[in-house]
Amino acid sequence: MIYYFLSWVGRTISVLIRPNTPYTEAVLLEVLRIGNILPSSMGQRALADGTLWDEKRKRQYFIPRGTDIIWNLGAVLKNPEYFPNPEDFDPTRSMPY
């Protein structure tokens, strides 16, 4: 749809028009956030021993070197701490002001 609109107004799709289309980029980012098709990240491995602090439970977790780590992206993208009203579609939340 965006392609057809831009071609209708005589613009060529290019990264050069990206700075001039902040709302379009914000809409696309919000669509990617709400329609998260990958609920977890690619696996990562801890390269060194480390600790992780859980603020909610007031507890520290030890993560030994070599531990496989998989992030729950769905929990992050729907977390009201990072995205107020996470179930609402609001492109302005990622707009540069």
Describe the structure.
The chain is an alpha+beta fold and 97 residues long. The protein has one domain. It has three helices and four strands. A two-stranded antiparallel sheet has the order 1-4. A two-stranded antiparallel ribbon has the order 2-3. The longest helix is centred in the N-terminal third of the chain and has 13 residues, at 22-34.
Per-chain topology:
Elements (H helix, E strand, L loop, with lengths): L1 H7 L13 H13 L9 E2 L4 E5 L4 E5 L4 E2 L3 H5 L20
Give the key terms.
about 100 residues; alpha+beta; two-stranded antiparallel ribbon; 4 strands
> Any idea how many domains?
1
Number of helices: 3
What summary fits the major beta sheet? 2 strands, antiparallel
**What is the total tally of β strands?**
4
- Helix proportion of residues, in percent? 25-40%
- Please tell me the overall pLDDT: 85
Based on Cα principal axes, name the global outline: elongated
Précis, in short:
The protein is α+β, with helices and mostly antiparallel strands. The chain has helices at residues 2-8, 22-34, 73-77; strands at residues 44-45, 50-54, 59-63, 68-69.
